[in-house]
Amino acid sequence: MRNFSSINKSAGSPAGLKALGDYNFPASFLWGAAISSYQTEGANYNSDWYLFEKERKLKEAGRAANHYELFPQDFKLAKELNLSAIRLSFEWARISPAPGIYSYDEINHYKEVIKTLKILGLKPFVTIHHFTNPIWMAQSNGFESSKNIDYFLGYLKKIVEEFKDDVSDWLIFNEPLVYVYNGYICGRWAPGIKNLWRAQKVLSNIKSAYMDGYKEIKNIYGTNNKDNRVSIVNHIRKFSPCPNFNLGQNSFSAFVKNKLSNFDIIDYLAKKSCLDYLALNYYCKEYVKFNGLVGDECAHKDHKERRNYLDWYIYPEGLYELLKEFKSYNLPVYIMENGTAEADDSLYREYLVSHIKCVARAASEGLDVKGYFWWSLIDNFEWDLGFGPKFGLIDINYETFERRIKPFAYTYAKICRENRIEA
Fold first, then answer.
1. How many CA atoms lie within 13 A of 395 on its CB side?
2. Is the peptide bond before 376 cis (omega within 30 degrees of 0)?
3. How far apart (Å, rounded) are the C-alpha atoms in residues 64 and 188?
4. How far lies 326's CA from each of 92, 267, 272, 279, 329, in Å?
């Protein structure tokens, strides 16, 4: 499936996919958008990210998009755009201000959030851990300490028990490899550590926490409950060898990165039979140049793909190519995040349509794709990048918190309403 020769053959940029005719998605297909609590809610002062911003003198999230207060307005706008699902997260630091202590005021707040979604006919997908921890968790070494897995599992059990009647889909962790890389290898994110050994320990404990959490959720719902589903969100990227020099070595590094970043954690958990579906985030392509076993990113001036606001290489065909590889797992697939930040508003529509066409092509060839979620519903706080990147379907004025639907979002609304993509 993921052989070295297939990576090597992709050294040149693909000529593009053959034209696909109009494609009608299944009636049950879910069209959605995603958000996370810390990036949108504001005033998450018990979070390790708030502490990290203060310590590193980073741009602070502050009130973010004030989604904590304005969530009814945001979800009504989502309904106006014909969405049928919302992926969101609960903020652990709000719900559990101290070890083993739970705030029912915050639990009831999130119950209002879920109630609002259900009244509007928007199916909730809840992420339990989306990068942030309570300060007390961080100060006791976070996921480096295997003892803290019990605190996380206690939190997981509490919220699943509280919400099991209204939430059927749980995503236990969001992008664990991204979390580990940014927080424990390059040190850009909380807790700001640069130590490969500690990074490996964190990843190992997250895998353990996921598997135990999966079993816990199944026990809460009952093992015969077919309506309950659990997964982990994996960030995937198209890795291609830099063709400008040392093509053979670069191809090897691209192969290794593809295996480690895109497939290893899914391989591991699939073998443990604790994935009900594949939850995938895809944004862009990365060129790889050889530098030891795992190569470095290559940003050569001759690469032909256009770059977005964040200098990411935009390559929609990569989504199709990767989805073809994931077909071998014989599991349903949700695209849980796909999106872009652009300086030119006209480029959002191009990105949206081209990527949905690639999802449609994969579906037309037999992949069991169940849903597509744009990142993100609203503009938000993008971690160490602050408020510069604009990913939202809805623009936020961060001074007044006024909401404005962006022009490209109406294209998405049309696709959602018609449940089809035109050739």
1. 10
2. yes
3. 20
4. 31, 10, 17, 11, 6
Question: CA-CA distances (angstroms) from residue 204 to 67, 143, 261, 264?
Answer: 33, 9, 15, 12
* CA pair distance 298, 317, nearest whole angstrom: 19
Beta strands in 229-368 (DSSP E): 229-241, 278-289, 296-297, 333-338
Q: Average pLDDT for residues 346-374, to the nearest whole number?
A: 98
Token look-up 């300060």 returns: 135
pLDDT at position 227 is 86
pLDDT over threshold 70, residue 285: yes
The answer to whether the CB of 419 falls within 8 A of the CB of 24 is yes
Task: For helices 407-418 and 346-364, give the axis angle rounded to 10 degrees.
Answer: 20
What end-to-end distance do the CA atoms of the chain give, in Å? 29
What integer is the mean pLDDT of 194-216? Answer: 98
Taking each helix axis as running N to C, give the angle between helix 67-80 and helix 104-119, from 0 to 180 degrees, rounded to the nearest 10.
Answer: 10
Q: Which two tokens stand for residue 279?
A: 């939850």
Q: Where are the beta strands (DSSP E) in 90-183?
A: 123-129, 169-174
- The count of other CB atoms within 10 Å of the CB of residue 303 is 18
Residues 6+ apart with CB under 8 A from 169: 123, 124, 125, 126, 228, 229, 230
381 near 61, Cβ under 8 Å? Answer: yes
Task: For the chain, give the number of residues.
Answer: 423
**What domains are there in the chain, each with its CATH number?**
4-421 (3.20.20.80)
Q: For 143-165, how does the pLDDT look when each residue is reduced to its tens digit (9 = 90+)?
A: 999 999 999 999 999 999 999 99
The residue with greater pLDDT, 68 or 15, is 68
User: What's the pTM?
Assistant: 0.95
Exposure string for 115-153, b = 16+ CB within 10 A, e = fewer: ebbeebebbbbbbbbbbbbbbbbbeeebbbeeebbebbb
Q: Which residues are within 8 A (CB) of 104 and not within 5 positions of it... i.e. 6 or more apart?
A: none
The 10 Å CB-count burial string (b at 16+, else e) for 233-261 is: bbbbbbbbbbbeeeeebbbbbbbbbbeeb
* CB-based contact 309:262 (threshold 8 Å): no
pLDDT value, residue 16: 58
Half-sphere exposure of 320 (CA within 13 A, CB side): 20
- What is the pLDDT at residue 361? 97
The beta strand positions in 267-402, using DSSP E, are 278-289, 296-297, 333-338, 369-375, 394-396
Residues 41-64, buried b or exposed e (16+ Cβ, 10 A)? bbebebbbbbbbbeeeebeebebb
